[in-house]
Amino acid sequence: VNTIVQSFLLENKINFATNEGQLSTDFQKLNPVITVFPADFFELEKTIKILSANKIKFHVVSKGHNWGYGDKNSKLICTCSIDLRKMNKIIRYDQALGTLEIEPGVTQKQIYLYLNELKSPWCLDITGADSNSSIVGNYLERGFGHTFYGDHEDKGKILEAITPQGKVFNPHFIFSNESRVRGLYQHDLSLNLEKIFYQTNFAIVTKFLVKLKPRNQKTILAVVLNKNATSEFELIQKISHLKMHEVVNSIPHIANFERVNKVSEVSVKTKFKYAATIDISGTKELACLRKKLISKTFAKDKVYFFTKANLFVLEKLISWRFIPAVYKENFQNVKSLFDLIDGIPTDYFVKNSLGADFMQNPKKSLWIAPLFPISEEAFLRLKAILEEVTLKYNFNLATTVSLISDRLAVCVADITLNSNDEKSLQLGLTCYQELVERLFKEGFPLYRMGYAHSEMPKNSEYFVEIYKSIKNIFDPDDLLSPGRWLK
Ligand SMILES: Cc1cc2nc3c(=O)[nH]c(=O)nc-3n(C[C@H](O)[C@H](O)[C@H](O)COP(=O)(O)OP(=O)(O)OC[C@H]3O[C@@H](n4cnc5c(N)ncnc54)[C@H](O)[C@@H]3O)c2cc1C
Q1: Would the CA dihedral through 316, 320, 323, 324 be positive or negative?
Q2: Mean pLDDT of 478-483
Q3: For the chain, what is the total number of helices (H) and then of strands (E)?
């Protein structure tokens, strides 16, 4: 197989490399595939056609920075991978509507620099992933950020895709090729085909529209610190009420201090158990009103409000030599988070979680991200399962609860290994598999799964039949990311 692909690629002067010897966050060994780096759509199309003609199974990534979800790894059955990092054009910017049409290789950093250069009134909702992560991979995986543009599936639209057989189509407004509102209307007329390409790997997305967020007139990051181990749910519920009443419209995150320490360079010792971080930015009037209401809601807790002005002063203060390292670290942590909500990407969180050389040698790490309804019974049950299983395998439980809607949240935990030996890998994998099984069984589905581990529990034969029929339309030979969602 490799010889066929290699000679075709050489003949057509298409860039490729083998990934042998490289490392990934995945607990399973990196599948030694040939990775193709098409420079443009035509090279991609040619590559797909040759793979399809030779029935070669392949995976696709935009940048492959899917840390904690297996990043660029694929199942052993794939012998090839297409990495779209070179297809990184910003195709069109609409200043009036605040939209960008992009290719899959475009990164968070690229958009930040582009909009900054134009002094654009728009910015991107940034994630905690590194600045060179893609937009398209993240949005297709239903990633989320921190601001009111944080629900990424909701803020993007697939404009063009190519099937593993090489057929090109526009999934949004499929009945109206000339549509002026392609990518803008949240629904469709009749069939909304676009929706079926998120987390399915039915086709390869080649053009994407991102809705940009109006730049904040006033950026305020509220941080609520909570001392009491038993009141995590109370904190979640109060924030959920603020969301229901639209006092808060962003995606607030509540981290325990195990999580805060995992993403910090220096361990933070504190009497507090949880830190809630809430983006309350917007127009001056709205941000100030939100600040007032948050102060009132959390009158019994410690609440800090960070703005550009007070961070500027703090930065001067903490630069003094005699200030302890832990305060400097607290500042770095808050500043990096503040930058995110202000549209500035950072490598800070990934570096601290996966190691400074995360591009070459990332720590082995798997995210586990169950969804739960905001009810005390459900939350306590979920926490009990996570604690019981991680304790059994001797992993510490670092969690973030993110309120991605007013009635539902996701609890993101991770299993990160300190050593890459076979025994640790096996232990980590067993712990992950036991968690997945328990969580699904007790009604807490994950919002996202990595490729190597992504088999859905098959509790409905009819679902499998429907799924396979749809896949069969786009990919009758099951060439693209086989086994990504179903065996
Ligand atoms: C410390 C830390 C913080 C993080 N914070 C966040 C966060 O705040 N929010 C968040 O969402 N994630 C977060 N992540 C997870 C992850 O790193 C990001 O989601 C990242 O953006 C995904 O990598 P990527 O964009 O390069 O996507 P890729 O790895 O390129 O793609 C992801 C998957 O999408 C599919 N895909 C990609 N491109 C295409 C295409 N063109 N056509 C069809 N299918 C495609 C493939 O199945 C691929 O495996 C974090 C990770 C770490 C370690």
Answers
A1: positive
A2: 95
A3: 13, 19
Q: Which atom of ligand 1 is nearest to the CA of 127?
A: 8
Which residue minimizes the CA distance to atom 50 of ligand 1?
A: 129
Cα of 250 from ligand 1 centre, angstroms: 20
Distance of CA 329 to the CA centre of its chain: 24
Minimum CA distance residue for ligand 1 atom 4: 129
Q: Residue with the nearest Cα to atom 12 of ligand 1? A: 143
Distances in whole angstroms, Cα of residue 378 to Cα of each of 58, 160, 233, 351, 371? 39, 40, 10, 33, 10
Nearest to 414 by CA among 455, 459, 450, 457: 450
Q: Give me the pLDDT at residue 1, please.
A: 57
| Cα of 137 from ligand 1 centre, angstroms | 5
Q: Which atom of ligand 1 is nearest to the CA of 104?
A: 41
Q: What is the rounded distance in angstroms from the CA atom of residue 467 to the CA atom of residue 447? A: 18
Rg of the chain taking only CA atoms, in angstroms: 23
Give tens-digit pLDDT for 85-135: 999 999 999 999 999 999 999 999 999 999 999 999 999 999 999 999 999
Residues with CB under 6 A from ligand 1: 60-68, 71, 84, 104, 127-129, 133-134, 136-138, 140-141, 143-145, 201, 204-205, 349-350, 353-354, 451, 481
145: CA distance to ligand 1 center in Å?
A: 12
Burial of residue 50 (CB within 10 Å: 0-12, 13-18, 19+) is buried
Tell me which residue has tokens 């390409």.
197
Residue type, 139: Y
Please tell me the predicted confidence (pLDDT) of residue 458: 67
Distance 85 CA to ligand 1 centre (A): 13
Mean pLDDT of 156-163: 98
The most confident of 46-55, 148-157, 296-305, by mean pLDDT: 148-157
Reading the block at residue 454, the tokens are: 């992504």
Among residues 350, 370, 369, the alpha carbon closest in space to that of 109 is found at 350
Range in 70-79, 214-223, 320-329, 472-481 the model is least confident about: 320-329
The larger pLDDT score, comparing residue 453 to residue 380, is at 380
Q: What are phi and psi of 140, to 5 degrees?
A: -70, -25
105 alpha carbon – ligand 1 mean position (Å): 12
Q: What is the pLDDT averaged over residues 327-338?
A: 93
Q: What is the pLDDT of residues 221-273, one digit of tens each?
A: 999 998 876 689 999 999 999 999 999 999 999 999 888 888 888 877 788 88
User: Which of 251, 281, 254, 186 lies closest to 405 in space, CA to CA?
Assistant: 251
Angstrom distance (rounded) from CA 65 to CA 74:
13
